[in-house]
Amino acid sequence: MVRTSCLFLASALAVGLAAQAPMGRGVHPADLDPATAPCQDFFQYANGGWLKAHPIPADRATWGGFNEVEERNSALLKEILEEAAASQAPAGSVPRQVGDFYRAGMDVKGLAKAGLAPLRPLLARVEAVKDARGLAQELARLRVLGLGAGFRFNVVVDDRDSGAYAAELAQGGLGLPDRDDYLLDTDRARDLRASYRTYLAGLLELAGEKPALARAHAAMALEVEARLAQASMTRVELRNPQALYNRRTLAELKALAPAFDWEAYFREAGLAAPATLLVRQPRFLEALSALGRDLPAAQWRAYLKVRVLDGAAPCLDEAFERLHFAFHSTTVRGIRDMSPRWKRVLRAEDQALGDSLGRMYVARAFPARARTRMAALITNLRGALRARIQALAWMSPATREAAVKKLDALTVKIGHPDVWRDDSALKIEATGYFGNVTRAAAFAFRADLAKLGRPVDRTEWSMTAPTVNAYYEPTRNEIVFPAGILQPPFFDPEADDAVNYGAIGMVIGHELTHGFDDEGCQYDAQGNLRDWWTEADKRAYAARTDLVVRQYDALEALPGLPLNGRLTLGENIADLGGLKIAYAAFQASLAGHPRPAPIDGFTAEQRFFLGYAQCWHFHAREAAARVLAATDPHSPAKARVNGPLSNLPEFFEAFGCREEGPMHRPESARPTLW
């Protein structure tokens, strides 16, 4: 369960540097709020005009630069999908698969006519569960179809042997956003649980149960999830990779969780007697085993049934989809309106056929020159980080040498995979949306199982090419920039260097720094979870990260809702380090050249910081902000701007911020990490 550290949680599809993308602009004066002083609240100063002019659309929980990119992208991707759906491409070809998936998803009449029919075989199997073996078999069948329940079972890179794959068992099986939603005794948590219970009962009624029975079964299912939540690690606990590395043989797994029929589970999943597994949370599997022993089969059937219905609802008729939306989107995140159907199908298709759709997208939207420009920027940023590491006074020479070795070994991927996944054997039909979605999930799962025993494929990507995001993968020691992020406001071919270094330069620096954040620093140059720090350096690093935690603990997501500095620590380290690295690289790029003239009244240094801040124009509905504060390892946009900048003397100098101002931290309160 290695955490891939990405730039932004809510990844969106995005078009690259195509003709459809807007012309570059650099800093946009209309986005500023001249009524706010930059040294008072730089986020509001840089973005206040944009926030006022761009309210959150009714079909969104949040709105910002990432979402704007998604909207610009939607027209192109819709065009690709509609052309593919109308084509007469050969069966099994990429355009035919992409088009047939889209046609099936858009077939509203066919979905209405089918009703619950696509689920009846699954529900019949659930109703047949009578004992421990039947429960294990059904959990495995649902996992294969992508309808996860009980726990997670995946194939991952082995944290301590990064050249090999491993089977992983991890906590899961919950329907609410966070385990604390089941456990907290607050008005909001109790109301959310009541709404969830009503939603589950509604699903069961749509599936044919009488109201009283549906309510009883919903309560039974909710109790199972609450018991699983009690045994689950918190999100902060999940940030400790050492605690999550627990290798067990099958015999040891059986001893740990003896009431669960593991052999039946693995056999049904298609994995014959794994020699060893990574058990991420042993206590969770102990609890799952005990629940399997202690709870009646009828209660497990109720749980399995709601997991099937909840997972399948977006692929069924309008009644199921609207009920799913009303709870998960409106109740949980505050979204008022459902997005157009074609956008919902597009999101599902990116998940099911991401490489196939990505190939068509890249052919139309991503020029080769974008890779060249990004590669040059990454080289500059890498050099800046190398120089900073070599100059760190708080780190011993031995650890500095190992850190530089790790940086030099890091792999860079830009735009799209060099090797696309071959989905030609996947059966996609022009009718039967749910069948396409589950067959795609099963195809991907079986492909993952086939990796066991093989060397790790270093060409694989964890994001699709159209995604507007970026990530660092610790077990591969790589940074990855999908084509989607290489456009304004992140990468602007029409902007001056100052803005691009503040925007995409910071994105690059952010991902580079993830290799050395509080989780990434535990992996070595080859991507192995291994201690390569001296004890003194570990203590010095911990003291500095504690300072970062205290800073962000003092900030709020909403009035009265403080941030969790431990949950967001890795991303906050990456934001602070990324900004410092980007600024150092920008200053190095000016050496030997005439000083840039001011543009729109702003110096180059001021435009660097404005370019950074305007990447983060973003706001969220209150309900969504609460969910993000509890679950997102990233700080809110305002904290991502003002937090790092309040630690940078270069920012104080650029805007003339006095020591007593809110954007100015005293030197003793500024963490020095990377």
Automatic annotation (TrEMBL):
Cell inner membrane found in the keyword field: no
N-terminal signal peptide: 1-21
One Gene Ontology MF term: metalloendopeptidase activity
Domain Peptidase M13 N-terminal: 38-417
Record domain Peptidase M13 C-terminal: where: 469-666
Ranges in coiled-coil conformation: none
InterPro entries hit by this protein: MetalloPept_cat_dom_sf (IPR024079), Peptidase_M13 (IPR000718), Peptidase_M13_C (IPR018497), Peptidase_M13_dom_2 (IPR042089), Peptidase_M13_N (IPR008753)
Cofactor(s) listed in the protein's UniProt record: Zn(2+)
Keywords, comma-separated and alphabetical: Hydrolase, Metal-binding, Metalloprotease, Protease, Signal, Zinc
GO CC, alphabetical: plasma membrane
Key word Oxidoreductase present: no
GO biological process entries: protein processing
Family (UniProt): Belongs to the peptidase M13 family.
PANTHER family: FI17812P1-RELATED, ZINC METALLOPROTEASE FAMILY M13 NEPRILYSIN-RELATED
Protein's UniProt name: Peptidase
